[in-house]
Amino acid sequence: MEKLKVGVAGLGHGGTLLQANTAAGSHLRLRVTAVCDTDGARAREAGERYGVPFVTTDFAELVARPELDVIGIYTPGPLHAAQILAALDAGKHVIVTKSMVYSMAEVEQVVEAVDRTGLVLLVSQSLRGRLDFMEAKRACDAGEIGAPYLAESHYIHDLRPVYDYSPWRVQMPQDLILGGACHPIDLLRWFMGDIEEVHCYGQRSGLAPEYPREDNFVINVRFASGRIGRIANYLGVVEPPGEVMNELTVYGTRGVLRNARKRVEGDGYLPARDSEVSFTSKLPLGHHQEMLVMMAHLAECILDGNTPWVGVREGARVVATGLACWESLRSGAPVKVRNEF
Fold this sequence. Notes:
- The protein is α/β, with parallel strands linked by helices.
- Helix content is about 35%, strand content about 25%.
- It is built from 10 helices and 15 strands.
- A hairpin with an 8-residue loop joins strand 13 (about 260-265) and strand 14.
- Helix 3 (about 80-90) runs parallel beside helix 4 (about 105-115) and helix 8 (about 175-190) packs across helix 10 (about 310-330).
């Protein structure tokens, strides 16, 4: 089986792409053949461990490799736009971690570049590859809970340990709506469609004194369909015991879905019936499982012509929603979201 050759920039979360070079990823139609990280020792260790022949600390050297088909961009968010454009201009397909970019000007540049080159850009909103969310989407689309009319999603994560091993999040600092709330924003858009308006409140918890901006957000949304929803993005908290980091609930006219758990109303006065979906899979859990799914999807987009789940315009709409949230937080008023690109 001929495989796409992938170069990965950023071996934090980007290290999950190295599964393509292991037994768990042997079924994938791609292989990592080049890595780049500003930490040279980490790059060399990854090269030796995963049989990657080319190792560098220079992104320009990575993009210039003529044999590469795909560049995986898993670097700090503010670097994404320039690196995406460089990869596309070099004739490479792109898989990029969230958020795709961080300003409307960058959105415009990247949309133009994808249209001009005709290359694939996939934003690895990894929750699209989580098995319970995939099952929930199937059940929702099949009408198993009736017509959805209300949805909420949360991302609850104490980021203090994350700041320790990725200090750029404090130094830049990371935008925790575009780089955090993008998870529940994308989930709600996937299930409920375009978001037309947002009203956002935020606070700086002070739990991590070194982080200088707001780190907790409550976002009310109205969808283009007229339906409504809510996002809780709590990243400056002590995580509650037993809390699921990412969760989605969709309320329908016949029942409700929470992740892949489903409750459907019984007939007449019969009590509601509960059913839980269990998965039999040997895939690893968490981001590793999600990224195996995303990598398989990437290959389908490039080799089979499939439409990316989160392509450049879907990525643009997530960015536009996040930017509208910031505008609402500063103004104290609801803000319309741009959805046309």
